[in-house]
Amino acid sequence: ADGLIRFPSALGRVREDVAPVTEVERAANPRIRFFVERNPTWAEGTELACLAEMTFMLPLAYATKGLLQRARRG
Q1: Residue 15 to residues 10, 11, 43, 46: CA-CA distances in angstroms?
Q2: How do residues 8-47 score in pLDDT, each as one tens digit?
Q3: Which of 3, 32, 35, 51 has the lowest tally of Cβ within 10 angstroms?
Q4: Listed residue (25, 7, 8, 28) closest to 16, CA to CA
Q5: What pTM does this model have?
């Protein structure tokens, strides 16, 4: 109902001491703010469910975007 996925054991979580979310980051980045507001227990391994429409061209678009980003970095 809340869009969160809770696991009995969070093996692959990002620990809060490794990637803390500061108030400055929350204020500056609307995506971080959205994530932390919707998933306040993220540091415990809770995941935020994400649903998206999958099309035939979507994997190709992501692959192309990744290749272009690598090319720009050199």
Answers
A1: 10, 10, 6, 11
A2: 876 666 666 666 778 888 788 899 899 889 998 888 888 8
A3: 51
A4: 25
A5: 0.58
**What amino acid occupies position 59?**
P
Q: Which two tokens stand for residue 56?
A: 């035939």
Angle, vertex CA 11, rays to CA 5 and CA 15, nearest 5: 85
- pLDDT tens, residue by residue, 42-68: 888 888 998 888 899 999 999 999 999
**Tokens standing for residue 60:** 């190709």
β-bridge mates for residue 4, sequence order: 48
Structural tokens at position 2: 């809340």
| Contact in structure between 28 and 36 (CB atoms under 8 Å) | no
